[in-house]
């Protein structure tokens, strides 16, 4: 075809030109190719979704091609309501003008071989605002919260850890000071306690539990719980346990009550330690390792607000398995 021949000639001319470029211009060419690759990667996913979906306004199936967007994605026109749309219309990134960079943000978040950058550093690298990076990260975290945990089998270890509650961004004290009729927040500010820190008993009351569940095959889940009572743990733990699994936990009575009521095989390791007759395979080292990873992962975010805590907890585990392109496709589906 004529168009194909023209593209081939242009590509050959471009490749010959690149071979004669000085080092400084080669770096510019590499940056331009990286930008084109990101845009093409996003456009392919957007068009694949657009091919399959109906009109997001009326649900009509009659449509026709209606040009392309600035990013190169296919635009469609509904034959019933005359509205136009693309594969990302009506999605959380419908107004994102550079969807290729959204994939790069997700890739930086989920790459297990590279530590995620701060919003400021990643924004500087990609040439976008730190606030934009933060908003896109929240979209990724919201998507991760919709993914149901895998069903674990074999020997399963479960234990909970705690994260200090954070009301970062909360306007409770501001509302109360402006209008004393508004209820006073239940927790005082840190500088209002004696000796500049709250007593241990009070600080423990404001800890948020996070449940870690892992099996010996490497599958894991990490979920924020509203409390450590039996119903909350039951709702998070039981859907992940296969019928023939052996669940190991420490001496917390909630777990034993759940195992007995659900008919789950279990073994208790009091204080996480094995007895003299306990099999060597029974230990909590794997889930404790997950907790140690959390303690290394969470300080870099300077204590995220509690309302985002579940997303951050799932983010830690998603770095093991999530693919940024697949997640981008899930966001626009």
Fold and architecture overview:
- The chain has 333 residues and is of the alpha/beta class.
- It has three domains: 90 residues, no CATH class; 111 residues, Ribonuclease H-like superfamily/Ribonuclease H (Nucleotidyltransferase, domain 5, 2-Layer Sandwich), CATH 3.30.420; 40 residues, no CATH class.
- Helix content is 44%, strand content 14%.
- It contains twelve helices and eight strands.
- Helix 2 crosses helix 3 and helix 3 crosses helix 12.
- The two termini are 34 Å apart.
- The model has no long low-confidence stretch (mean pLDDT 89).
Largest sheet: 5 strands, mixed
Extended strand count: 8
Assign a percent range to the helix content. Answer: 40-55%
Looking across the biggest beta sheet, what order are the strands in? 6-5-4-7-8
Q: Please report the distance between the alpha carbons of the first and last residues.
A: 34 Å
Average pLDDT taken over every residue: 89
Estimated radius of gyration: 26 Å
CATH secondary-structure class of the largest domain? Alpha Beta
Structural class comes to alpha/beta
Low-confidence stretches: none
Which CATH architecture of the largest domain would you pick? 2-Layer Sandwich
């Amino acid at each position: 075809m004529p168009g194909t021949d023209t593209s081939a000639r242009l590509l050959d001319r471009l490749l010959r030109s690149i071979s004669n470029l000085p080092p400084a211009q080669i770096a510019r060419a590499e940056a331009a190719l990286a930008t084109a690759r990101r845009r093409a990667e996003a456009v392919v996913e957007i068009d694949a979704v657009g091919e399959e979906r109906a009109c997001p306004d009326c649900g009509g199936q009659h449509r026709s091609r209606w040009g392309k967007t600035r990013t190169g994605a296919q635009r469609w026109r509904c034959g019933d309501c005359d509205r136009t749309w693309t594969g990302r219309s009506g999605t959380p990134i419908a107004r994102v003008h550079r969807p290729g960079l959204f994939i790069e943000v997700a890739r930086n978040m989920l790459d297990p071989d590279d530590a995620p950058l701060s919003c400021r550093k990643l924004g500087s690298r990609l040439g976008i605002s730190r606030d934009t990076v933060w908003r896109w990260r929240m979209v990724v975290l919201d998507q991760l919260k919709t993914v149901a945990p895998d069903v674990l089998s074999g020997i399963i270890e479960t234990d909970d850890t705690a994260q200090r509650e954070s009301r970062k961004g909360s306007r409770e004290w501001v509302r109360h000071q402006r209008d004393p009729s508004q209820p006073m927040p239940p927790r005082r500010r840190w500088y209002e306690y004696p000796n500049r820190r709250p007593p241990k008993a009070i600080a423990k009351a404001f800890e948020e539990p996070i449940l870690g569940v892992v099996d010996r095959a490497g599958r894991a889940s990490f979920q924020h719980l509203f409390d450590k009572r039996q119903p909350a743990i039951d709702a998070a733990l039981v859907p992940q346990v296969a019928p023939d699994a052996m669940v190991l936990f420490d001496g917390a009575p909630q777990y034993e009550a759940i195992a007995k009521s659900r008919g789950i095989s279990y073994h208790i390791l009091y204080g996480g330690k094995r007895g003299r007759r306990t099999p060597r395979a029974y230990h909590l080292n794997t889930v404790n390792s997950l907790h140690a990873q959390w303690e290394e992962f969470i300080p870099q975010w300077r204590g995220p607000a509690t309302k985002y805590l579940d997303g951050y907890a799932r983010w830690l585990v998603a770095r093991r398995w999530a693919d940024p392109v697949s997640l981008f496709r899930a966001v626009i589906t």
